[in-house]
Amino acid sequence: MEELESLKKSLFKNAMKGKWKEVVEKYAMDSRARDMKITKRGDTVLHVAVCDGQVGVVEELMRIISGEEKKGGEENNSKRVVRIANHKSATALHLAATLGNVKMCYDIASVDHSLVGIRNNEGETPLFLAALHGNKDAFLCLHSFCAHTEDRCRRSKDGQTILHCAIMGDFFDLGCVWE
Predict the structure, then answer these.
(1) In terms of CATH, what superfamily is 2-178?
(2) Which Gene3D superfamilies does the record match to this protein (predicted)?
(3) For residue 10, what are the CA distances in angstroms to 72, 124, 127, 167?
(4) How far apart, in whole angstroms, are the C-alpha atoms of residue 65 and residue 7?
(5) What digits encode the pLDDT tens for the residues 15-74?
(6) What is the pTM of this model?
(7) CA 98, CA 6: separation in Å to the nearest integer?
(8) Cβ density class 91-125: b for 16+ within 10 Å, e for less
């Protein structure tokens, strides 16, 4: 137990100080770091890296968890890790979509395409959040992972569609893309 708390503190401290090389090394060496919630909000290393705009770090984290499966590790481990949600039920993909970071959206969604349709506490999917915030390129990236028949990618809890959000936010070019 003490060892886990020490790992958690080390990951948090290094991430907050921007010592991402150390974080990635621990993440690669200790598989427990992958699903460890390191903040009071329930964020994992992946959540924090996304929020900090660490594109290269996110890419490396995805490579680590995907590479583990290729080496004969736990099947579907990478999908389990990217599906971890914080206290608002937001995955790292929700955060990347909100920020509009196309590379991070692509890297995370590539691990598990169905993430595009996972809802947070507000009923919002990553695809919906990209549209809501006018992040056209992130929206297009995520849309490419979402089958056109999947309605779950398209509505918030209050019934608003992605098209509604695009129009209300004056993101008319997103509305044109959607059709």
Answers:
(1) Ankyrin repeat-containing domain (1.25.40.20)
(2) Ankyrin repeat-containing domain (1.25.40.20)
(3) 28, 32, 33, 45
(4) 18
(5) 999 999 999 999 999 999 999 999 999 999 999 999 999 999 999 999 999 986 555 555
(6) 0.83
(7) 31
(8) bbbbbbbbbbbbebbbbbbebbeebbbbbbeeebb
